[in-house]
Amino acid sequence: MSQRRSGGDELIVSYMHLRKTVGWIGTLLPFVPIVGNVIFFTALQPDSMSGYYYTHMRNVFVGALCALGIFLIAYDGYDEVDRWVTNAAGICAIGAAFCPTKPPVCPPHVPVCAAPSVLRLSTGQQVTGVLHLIFAVATFIALALMALRFAKTEKTPPGVNTAGRIRQALGFAKPADGERQPRTRWLKVVYRACGLTIFSCVVLAALLNLLPASVRANAPWLFIFEALAVFAFGVSWFVKGETLLPILKNQPHPMQSSVIGLQPAPESAVAGRT
What we know:
Number of strands: 0
Order of helices and strands: HHHHHHHHHHHH
Radius of gyration: 21 Å
């Protein structure tokens, strides 16, 4: 390893590439199925991202979710909370891939329906559809927590109350004296914006059921909210992948020893999480 590159830098490169790979999957997942359906198959577009399971782009959709799940499970965060969140997101993403959403139902009074469709859902289809919904919601919540935790840059001090600990864990704590650089502030703004965007999309998608059917039919709102949430998740990982560049340029970085895992991270290194 030392002949090609110093051991630390080589491991950091791999870590950064892992983050960028997750970012690519997240940012491209909302668009690739659409483009593939339009260019190669000219099929009607489903009203949700999960609906692509019942199109010719099913393998692409399922494969992307499985790859995303494996990468998230393989990702080693900075602490136990990070590892629990990423593992939960990865497992739920794989669960959503293997438990497809309910297929489109063809109403009896409609002579022609967009294929593939069914006249009536079986019990198995209803059960897997419910499981898919649970896995999908859990995945989105975990993705939002990841983005917010990227903004956490210091260790939670002792003696903080419950509300303060939650703010610290989600990256909303007041910045320390050494964290007032413009770059750090803007990174936190991006992470928080991505996390709040994902949470907002989950809430808006849930509120769709309260709208009249005529309003819901005006646009594929569910697909829009899902795509925006996945894209925001991808952006947060793209930005996080770039934060390791200062180390590659031989500039000091507080997380160098803890990221490459070559030696136990000192207390100050664990505190730094940019």
